[in-house]
Amino acid sequence: MKIKEILSVLEEMAPLAYAEDFDNVGLLVGDQNAEATGVLVCHDALENVIDEAIDKNCNLVVCFHPILFSGLKKITGKNYVERAIIKAIKNDIAIYAVHTALDNHQDGVNKIFCDALGLKKTKVLIPKPNFIRKLITYTIPENAEKVRNALFDAGAGNIGNYEDCSFNSKGIGTYMGNEHSNPEIGERFEFVESEEIKIEVTFEKYLEPKILKALFKNHVYEEVAYEIYDLQNLHQNIGLGMIGEFESPMDEKDFLALVKDKMQADGIRHSAFLGKSIKKVAVLGGSGSFAIKNAIQSGADAFLTADLKYHQFYEAENSLLLADIGHFESERYTKNYIVDFLRKKILNFAIILSEENTNPVKYL
């Protein structure tokens, strides 16, 4: 099996198009055409993790955080990033990062977070904007079903929990071909009026090349008429953070005790107790201070995230319980999820969970 075959499975789990624009995801180091010997899944691809990959004969390291985040002008081994990259290159080890591609997935980091706490009725906290487009095309009735099904197969027509969604209306199309034309209906220089079906479908914007390929391949017309629009609709199943509910409310101290236990947190920093029950909880794995207002607007009783600064605890505004459980802790089970996904998709191949603890924060 080549490394690129494993990468295609990883993109199925976390499409790179889901990642935030600032992020650096995908294959960071290595040759995707190399034969894979094994996969080591970790949280951070540090030098000790590369050593582990060497020891376990894994030439692909799949990490959550990208070890290469900003540009490097020199690679001299002067810091932990450069040392890890040098060792990976010297030993022909590829490094692939998922990060916000998995953060934004409805079954990704924040769903894992919610599941660990036992939260139900989950939904995305900050739906992704500017991600949905609409295709409108026109064809003869005899061709409509073929075109529609091809568009569905290419990924169009998915709305929330529904698939194969489209809107179809009848109308009259007109055209007249010139001397270079080869019309499916009528002759050159003949004015044609033909009954047509207007087909409208929405799709995630990164699928556009695949959608258009399916359209052109299955349409009967020599010249395919189509329109594509950017929609203002938010994508309800892609985005940062998640909100869910407990079956029964609990008091604040019991809630934080549960969080500490389930997320194996050595310490939790939190805002003042408000003396109210906790039932509806917003979560955002990693650095999530930017989402405090979103959590308040969602009606959450508590918001769990990481990397909060002193003054940001004031932003709770006595509206909810704000808690910083630690960056690593909030993403703790992500690597387990990646391993489980790969093992289900790739049978009889070495998919190994890293034993290295790469959390840089320690507690007394």
TrEMBL record:
Gene3D superfamilies: 3.30.70.120, NIF3 (NGG1p interacting factor 3)-like. Keywords: Metal-binding. One of its GO terms (cellular component) is cytoplasm. The keyword Acetylation does not apply. Belongs to the GTP cyclohydrolase I type 2/NIF3 family. Homohexamer. A divalent metal cation binds at H65, D103, H327, E331. GO terms for molecular function: metal ion binding. NCBIfam families: YbgI_SA1388. This is GTP cyclohydrolase 1 type 2 homolog. Coiled coil: none annotated. InterPro entries: DUF34/NIF3 (IPR002678), DUF34/NIF3_bac (IPR017221), DUF34/NIF3_sf (IPR036069), N-reg_PII/ATP_PRibTrfase_C (IPR015867).
